[in-house]
Amino acid sequence: MASILDEYEDSQNTRQSSQQHSRLSSTNIGLAHSGFVNVRLEEEKPIFNKQRIDFTPPERINHLAVCNNQLCMSLGKDTLLRIDLAKPDQPNQIELGRKDDSKVHRLFLDPTGSHVLISLSTSECLYLNRNTQKVRSLSRWRGHLIESVGWNKLLGNETSTGPILVGTSQGIIFEAEISANEGSLFNTNPDQYFRQVHSLEEDGKPVPVCCMEVERGLENKYFIISTTRKRLFQFVGKVAEGSEQQGFSSIFNQNQDLLPSFQEFPANMGYSEITFYTSKLRTSPKAFAWMMGNGVLYGQLDYVRPDSLLSDVQVWEYTPDIDLNLNKPISIVLTQFHFLLLLHDRVKAICTLNGQVVFEDVFPDKFGPLKKMIKDPVGGLVWIYTERAVFRYHIQREARDVWQMYMSMNKFDLAKEYCRDRPECMDMVLAKEAEHCFQNKRYLESAKCYALTQNYFEEIALKFIEAKQEEALKEFLLKKLNNLKQSERTQITLLVTWLAELYLNSLGQLESDGNNIIFQETRNEFRHFLSSPKHKECLFNNRSTIYDLLASHGNVDDMVYFSVVMQDYERVISHYCQHDNYCDALEVLSKHCDEKLFYKFSPVLMQHIPRKVVDAWIQMGKKLDPKKLIPALMNYSQMGSTQQISETIRYMEFCVYELNVTEEAIHNYLLSLYAKYKPDSLLLYLEQAGTHASEIHYDLKYALRLCAEHGYLRACVLVYRIMELYEEAVDLALQVDVDLAKSCADLPEDDEELRKKLWLKIARHVVQEEKDVKKAMNCLSSCNLLKIEDILPFFPDFVTIDHFKEAICSSLEEYNQHIEELKQEMEEATESAKRIREDIQEMRNKYGVVDSQEKCAACDFPLLNRPFYLFLCGHMFHYDCLFQEVTPHLSAYKQSRLEELQKKLAATTQSSKSRHRPVPKDDGDTSSLGKGNAGTSREQMKSDIDDIIASECVYCGELMIKSIDKPFIDPLKFEEEKSSWL
């Protein structure tokens, strides 16, 4: 028993699967024009895969029931075998303990797999719970041969069945409930109650209740389906909320006055069987199949309908090989798209979509006749058994070929739903749908489908062209374009160009027909196409072609729109300018702020709308380079248009005063405009521009020439002043105004000689040209450099002295005052010299005291053992130490001078040593004189050396301050010093 679920492939199973594969292979090849190639690398497994259970029963199998992975089978007369399919190696065998001749009539297993009902041929019923080993008799059920049970899927659990319905061989329907819990002291039976709720008849006679099913819909609405041999009954009713535990009596009571809804068929084979298909666990069934005498009634279950649960009902009539007298169908099972029909030696699978037999599996005679077929609603496996063997079917990818059936039925949406993961099949469905729509003249739908297929592009396009369906062709091209990848540049270019041509043709036709509404809609659609970001790159690369198409159709508006989309604003502005629509051109310029376009189109726009153009320039501000706009401004300013000239000056003033432009060309041009058209502003501009050449941004020579050409003398004087040509400024200013000349004469403050010369020019002009003596005298008072004697030569001979009396007196007084100042300065100088001599004399007599312990500040050795220097600051140095410290800091000249003095001093010392001998007494005077001269010379040299090296303390004087920025180590000796430290 440990290997009860060990599976092996039956030899006949391989043959059946190969037959099925060969039958379906022709439909999987694909259309001849499809871009897909359907290649099967491995043989596909069949939908219904039969496996025999490796199990040899010790006794013959009477009945078998499977639900929720729990399997129960009746063996022989008195044995019940239970197997948990999750633990197949742990079977449980129970003896029923019956000593009479009773046989097991039927086995019933609830949806949870917990409750087993055993109907005996002696009209008794036994109960067994999954958690117990004890079989208990249902005393209230005695006397009724149980044929069917309608389980309560909502309230049933492992310990209680909840209210259930039971059908008997006499057509009576009972309501009952079974509990696995031990009863009370007075009631030890598991059956809680057992009461009759209804009875069924056929032709006025009681008949067995073959099958029962209980389902709940919306709003506590219950549907009860019950079948007899040739009738199918439906009981529909509501159960009050919260009263489900009370059972289904109220549903049957609602139908007492009316006959229950039923369907009846004439043929009768003595029994019937109904089966249901549930897509997911714990959901309501979606479809049903009822095996009865006339065939199989199958359809869908609709829980919304008020009176009947069945919808889309069809009847599959038995095939001629099924003889109800000799070869009656035994059992039926329903799957998602098929129902399996069990005959005594074979199984047939019929597709519920088209009613065709798609699978037939013949069982060998060695296993005996087939007895029953059961489907586990939880596991989905189909079980078949004979007296000596158990089989099961795995159902794999049942929907694999459903798409073909839906496609043949023209149910394309369903066909596509079932082949989403198979692109080759999806392509076939789309091609078939497109062809179907085309034949039914639904061209737009056909185009949409064709665009999704891999059919030849040219073939489909020609189809629509031949049918003269431009709209459909356009739709096809649009869909095809959207499905292309960005890398397929050639195809995208072709489709974009073709679509543009189609749109333009359509727009032209609509415009000629005068259909404004559709024309506007088409135009909007066309513009949306042109502005699509997905095709922007292609449109940009081929914009010249699109422009040619638009131009050939005369579609100016759309050409302008396309130019804007492509940001080809130059073309848009050119178009507006060609049509004298300068305001719109300027609006486009101002909106997109392209500097290059401003430079290009400003000349044209300035000619027609100068004020608006200048406003636009001012709004652009520093984004524009005014220097690049000058050619346009100069061109039209020379033509003499007053408005253009005034606007030009306005923009130039904006550049100079607002933007603070320093370009010389801008300032020179503004100067020229002022000089020619606005002279009042010229002098103001020159004054505000600055008074120093470094502050000026215009060309001084150009400005001087410009002002001279137009006779603006004051402006020329101002330029001369800036150029520091004071003589020329004064000469020119004297032609205009003497006061202006005076202001120019005072400018060279650092050059008194020049100032005097300039004032003399003014005085000469006043005396000789204006002949105004009084004004000439004022010149003397205005400039302190002029004296009366300087200007007297300018006066004529006939002038009397009375005119100069005051000036001569004041001049003499000044001279007298000057002489007194000189006397005072001389006295102060004499006094100062006297004090200096006294200080020198005092310094000669000044001395300092040196202690014997003092040390040299440089070498730190005793000071008195060698010649030394003592400074007022207190520092003391040996002569040679001070010499060594000071020499590196001396200039080259002083170093050479010091070296020269040392050599001379050394030479003098040597010569005096060589002549050192006794001197005669008579020559004493001569010798004394010679020694005195030599001593004087040596003292002078020592004094010169002292002046060089001991003029100041090396630590406190200027040498120390100047050496701050010098490195401690000489850069030339750095490497040597560095190596000495290693």
TrEMBL record:
<dbReference type="GO" id="GO:0007032">
    <property type="term" value="P:endosome organization"/>
</dbReference>
<dbReference type="GO" id="GO:0030674">
    <property type="term" value="F:protein-macromolecule adaptor activity"/>
</dbReference>
<dbReference type="GO" id="GO:0015721">
    <property type="term" value="P:bile acid and bile salt transport"/>
</dbReference>
<keyword id="KW-0862">Zinc</keyword>
<keyword id="KW-0175">Coiled coil</keyword>
<dbReference type="InterPro" id="IPR058919">
    <property type="entry name" value="Pep3/Vps18_RING_C"/>
</dbReference>
<dbReference type="GO" id="GO:0006904">
    <property type="term" value="P:vesicle docking involved in exocytosis"/>
</dbReference>
<dbReference type="GO" id="GO:0006886">
    <property type="term" value="P:intracellular protein transport"/>
</dbReference>
<feature type="domain" description="Pep3/Vps18 beta-propeller">
    <location>
        <begin position="46"/>
        <end position="395"/>
    </location>
</feature>
<dbReference type="GO" id="GO:0060036">
    <property type="term" value="P:notochord cell vacuolation"/>
</dbReference>
<keyword id="KW-0472">Membrane</keyword>
<dbReference type="GO" id="GO:0048284">
    <property type="term" value="P:organelle fusion"/>
</dbReference>
<feature type="region of interest" description="Disordered">
    <location>
        <begin position="905"/>
        <end position="940"/>
    </location>
</feature>
<dbReference type="GO" id="GO:0048069">
    <property type="term" value="P:eye pigmentation"/>
</dbReference>
<feature type="compositionally biased region" description="Low complexity">
    <location>
        <begin position="15"/>
        <end position="25"/>
    </location>
</feature>
<keyword id="KW-0863">Zinc-finger</keyword>
<dbReference type="InterPro" id="IPR000547">
    <property type="entry name" value="Clathrin_H-chain/VPS_repeat"/>
</dbReference>
<feature type="domain" description="Pep3/Vps18 RING C-terminal">
    <location>
        <begin position="850"/>
        <end position="919"/>
    </location>
</feature>
<dbReference type="Pfam" id="PF05131">
    <property type="entry name" value="Pep3_Vps18"/>
</dbReference>
<dbReference type="GO" id="GO:0030897">
    <property type="term" value="C:HOPS complex"/>
</dbReference>
<dbReference type="GO" id="GO:0007634">
    <property type="term" value="P:optokinetic behavior"/>
</dbReference>
<feature type="repeat" description="CHCR">
    <location>
        <begin position="621"/>
        <end position="775"/>
    </location>
</feature>
<dbReference type="GO" id="GO:0005765">
    <property type="term" value="C:lysosomal membrane"/>
</dbReference>
<dbReference type="GO" id="GO:0031902">
    <property type="term" value="C:late endosome membrane"/>
</dbReference>
<feature type="coiled-coil region">
    <location>
        <begin position="805"/>
        <end position="846"/>
    </location>
</feature>
<dbReference type="GO" id="GO:0007040">
    <property type="term" value="P:lysosome organization"/>
</dbReference>
<dbReference type="InterPro" id="IPR007810">
    <property type="entry name" value="Pep3/Vps18_beta-prop"/>
</dbReference>
<dbReference type="GO" id="GO:0045176">
    <property type="term" value="P:apical protein localization"/>
</dbReference>
<feature type="compositionally biased region" description="Acidic residues">
    <location>
        <begin position="1"/>
        <end position="10"/>
    </location>
</feature>
<feature type="region of interest" description="Disordered">
    <location>
        <begin position="1"/>
        <end position="25"/>
    </location>
</feature>
<dbReference type="GO" id="GO:0008270">
    <property type="term" value="F:zinc ion binding"/>
</dbReference>
<feature type="compositionally biased region" description="Polar residues">
    <location>
        <begin position="926"/>
        <end position="938"/>
    </location>
</feature>
<keyword id="KW-0479">Metal-binding</keyword>
<dbReference type="Pfam" id="PF26148">
    <property type="entry name" value="VPS18_RING_C"/>
</dbReference>
<protein>
    <recommendedName>
        <fullName>Vacuolar protein sorting-associated protein 18 homolog</fullName>
    </recommendedName>
</protein>
<dbReference type="GO" id="GO:0043485">
    <property type="term" value="P:endosome to pigment granule transport"/>
</dbReference>
<dbReference type="GO" id="GO:0008333">
    <property type="term" value="P:endosome to lysosome transport"/>
</dbReference>
<comment type="similarity">
    <text>Belongs to the VPS18 family.</text>
</comment>
